[in-house]
Structure formats: structure tokens, C-alpha cells
Amino acid sequence: MGKQDDEDEAKSPGQRLAEKLLATKKNRWESAPPEELERVNAFGEEYKVFLNRGKTERECVGAVLESLQALGFQDLEKLMPGPGILTPGSKVYWNNRGKSLVCGITGKSPLSEGVNIIGAHVDAPRIDLKTNPLYEEGELAYLDTHYYGGIKHYQWTAIPLALHGTLIREDGVKQDICLGESEEDPVFTITDLLPHLAREQMQKKAAEFMSGEELNALAGSRPYKDGKVKEKIKLNLLHLLHERYGMVEQDFACAELELVPAFKARDLGFDRSMIGAYGHDDRSCVFAALSAILRLAQEAVPAKTLLGLFIDKEEIGSVGNTGAQSRMLENSVAYLLAKSNDSYSETLLRQCLARSAMLSADVNPAFDPNFDSLYDRKTASYFGKGLVLTKYTGSGGKSGGSDANAEYCAKIRDILNRNAVPWQYGDMGKVDKGGGGTIAKYAANLGMEVLDCGVPVLSMHSPFEVLSKIDLYTAYRGYLAFFREG
Fold first, then answer.
1. Strand pairing report for 423-425 and 387-390
2. Residue 369: strand, helix, or coil
3. Going by DSSP bridges, is the β-strand pair 255-261/126-137 parallel, antiparallel, or unpaired?
4. For every one of its 486 residues, what pLDDT tens digit does the chain have, with 9 covering 90 and above?
5. Cα(141)–Cα(236) distance, rounded to whole angstroms?
């Protein structure tokens, strides 16, 4: 008998029964073999590069697109029209306005049997510029802003910010802007009040420390040298912008300009087990899902068609023509059907959607001991324990959320267990303490099965979120297993 046999023999009946019946979730750092830990660290390094490359929804989609094109994925809209163009193993993508993207690999089974989808969102909370943002006040120039998504306003003050985005100049030229990421670049900041003058401010509720209208970014202080003009500081900045980008003030009205944290993704902790960065929500799931698709693109033709759905506008309700409430997913499946079959019909499209299965890949709030009164420890997610399955979302009696059925939850559980993928439960905090939603409910509205499934994150929606490297890698393994067996 070996050591393990001796240990099993020494266990009491109660211990053996507990092992059989109890859902004990171990920390994966303890049980993972050395070769897996090497892959975890390498995966984390690749992820940091991805995060730094894509700090906005456009940049994130651009990074995804580069990876797909490098492996031969083709633009679905540019393929020849007509049925039969796509065959099993075809690798395609559809780029929706540079802000959302669907990619896929066609499988052996007919599309009428459904497809396997992993959907994640590419947008993240941030500070947007208003349409007429530049103004001068008190010998200083500022950028007037409107925050995007759910944020704590005060967290975005007194930190370095970078300006990213796109504008269309008066001459029709599209101009991309990225200012604040290079060591040589200037940065921006939203100033805060010094403690010596903040007595009244500190008596306010946290939500009132800084109003949304006060989140104005400091942009300059040097005047244009001309005694005959007004707003000399503003004019000097417009002069600099015109020299560098060829823009005039009116171009701000035709722009998408965003202020995001200027710092890079970094290892966190003495043991380097975590990554601190802006945008884990939800680019961690984007990266894990994309990595699974790229892996499968180099393997045999999948049994069923698989799709990656990388969607915009989740943080503000999945609205617009690049959000999950649009017809984007339906349209992309319709395009696939039209170029795969010679009998395309609306009925066939509806049948495909109804028979499809999806993982809504979104992050989950990890248990934080500093705020333990807000978590239900029994169903909270924890660092190091793997992929998080969130059966239901919403708030106030599950309102506004999605609730996966028992049969589909069991199917996903069985896939993960068969592939030895560590997973854990997850929710959005104690009942009546919080809540939230994802893109899951919009996919469910199309008739498909859907379950939320992602990475646990600390300090969610802050400028510097935190995740565990091993949970990120486990998400990749889970998504890979779903695509292969779902």
C-alpha cells in the first residue's frame, strides 16, 4: 500500500462521508502541479500586455482583431456572397464599428443544431469628455467630463490619467489619440481638496465628496502670448492640439475621448500571485475567451460551431448598436447561416438561436475581509479557488437579472468536473445589500441557455482592480472545455 492508501485507510467513516458529500473548494495554488504554475505565470504576463494594449473598447477590439488576423481569421462581410462559402473549420470574424466583435470557427454539425458562445464585454468604467470640453477658469484650463458606468467619483481624483480616443477632423480625417501612456507623455488629473480645507467635505456622504459635475480634468496653465486675445490658456492648448493632431475646437463634437488610469498592469503582492490593473472587468474574461478560441483555431475542426462575442456598452445597460441589446448577435448568426446553408430562413435562424448555449463571461466580486458584512461567505467567490459560476444576477428579488435553469447549470458543472477545472459558487453579495446584471439576460431573450461564469475580482469598478493569476488561467481552461464539449 502507498502513502495515499494509508491515509485513506486512517480516515474515519465520517471523514470519508464528508469527502463524498460536501462541496469543499480547495485553493488551486496548493494543488496545481509545477508545470501548471509555470503556465499560470506565463498566461499572466501575456494578459498584462493585452491589458496595456487595450484600455478602451476600441483598443481592446483592435487587440483582439490583431490576434485573430494573425491566425488567418477572415472578415465575414468581405467573403463572397451566397451559400456554401463557409465550410467546417472556417475561421471568421465580424467587426462591428470597431467597438464590438464576433469571431468564430464553424463546426462539423449543422448550424441548425445551435452554436456554443462565450460572451464578454470590452468596455470598462471611465471618464468621458463632454462634446465641448475645453474651458478656462482661474488661470487654469480644464476638460469638462461625464463619467461612464458605475464609479465611486472620489476614486478618480488625484491619480494620473491618460487621454485615449478617436475624433473625426473637419477635413474628414480620422485621428486616433493616445496621450499619457508613454514615459515622455504628459498626463492629466482631477484635483482634490487638501485636508486642511476639507472639513466640510469630510462631513459629507462618500457619494457627495465629488459630484459628477466636479470631475473636471486639469489640462494646462500656460497662456498664449498675445495681449489682444481672451482665454489665452485655452487658446494655447487648442494651438498645441492643432499642431499635433490637426484638430480645431469643433472637432470635439465628433469625438470619443476617454480618460483612463495612466498606470500599467502590475504584479501585486510579495508572492506576485495577483495582478493589479485598470479594466479587469471585463477584459480578463475577454482575454481568457479569446485565448481559448486561438487555441482551438490551431486544433481539429470543432464538433459544433463556436463563437466569441466581445460586446460594448455593458457598463451602461448594453444599449446602442454595439451593445448586447442590439441585433448584433442575431445578425452575425444570420450571416453565418446565409453563407453556410442553401436553405436560409428566419425559422432556421430562430431554431439555431434557441438551440445554442452561452457562457456570459463576466467577473464576480471576490470576498473581501475588509468588508465581510456585505458578503454571504457560503456563496461568495474567493481568490485561488477557480472559475466562478453565478447562477443568477439582478437585485431586489433577482429583478433585472438572469437566472439559469438547473439542467444547464448541471451541464456546465459536468463539463468542468470532467476536465478537472476548479470552479466555485459566486453571487453579488448579501440579499438586499447589492446586486447587478450582465449581458446574460439579453442572450436568454433569444431563447438560448446561458450561465454567468467568470473571474473573481477585488476593488471592482475602481481605477485599480485586482485578480488572482490562477483564477484567470482557470477561466481560460473552463472556457476551453466548454467550447470543446458544450
1. parallel
2. helix
3. antiparallel
4. 455 566 667 889 898 898 889 888 889 999 999 999 999 999 999 999 999 999 999 999 999 999 999 999 999 988 877 777 899 999 999 999 999 999 999 999 999 999 999 999 999 999 999 999 999 999 999 999 999 999 999 999 999 999 999 999 999 999 999 999 999 999 999 999 899 988 888 888 888 888 999 999 999 999 999 888 899 999 999 999 999 999 999 999 999 999 999 999 999 999 999 999 999 999 999 999 999 999 999 999 999 999 999 999 999 999 999 999 999 999 999 999 999 887 889 999 999 999 999 999 999 999 999 999 999 898 899 999 999 999 888 888 888 888 989 999 999 999 999 999 999 999 888 888 878 889 999 999 999 999 999 999 999 999 999 999 999 999 999 999 999 997
5. 10
Q: Please check whether residues 355 and 226 belong to one and the same domain.
A: no
Q: Which domain holds residue 200?
A: 126-261
Contacts 24+ apart (CB under 8 A), 218-223: 218/140, 218/141, 218/142, 218/188, 218/189, 218/190, 218/191, 219/134, 219/141, 219/142, 219/143, 219/188, 220/140, 220/141, 221/139, 221/140, 221/141
Asked if 50 and 155 sit in the same domain, the reply is no
Let me know whether 251 and 382 are in one domain.
Answer: no
433 and 470 part of one domain: yes
Edge-first strand listing for the sheet containing 423-425: 74-75, 91-96, 100-105, 306-311, 116-121, 357-360, 449-454, 387-390, 423-425
Residue 20 belongs to a domain: no
- 304 and 440 in a common domain: yes
CA dihedral for 67, 166, 75, 326, sign (positive or negative): positive
User: Could you give the number of structural domains in the chain?
Assistant: 2
> Which CATH number covers residue 282?
3.40.630.10
Which CATH number covers residue 235?
2.30.250.10
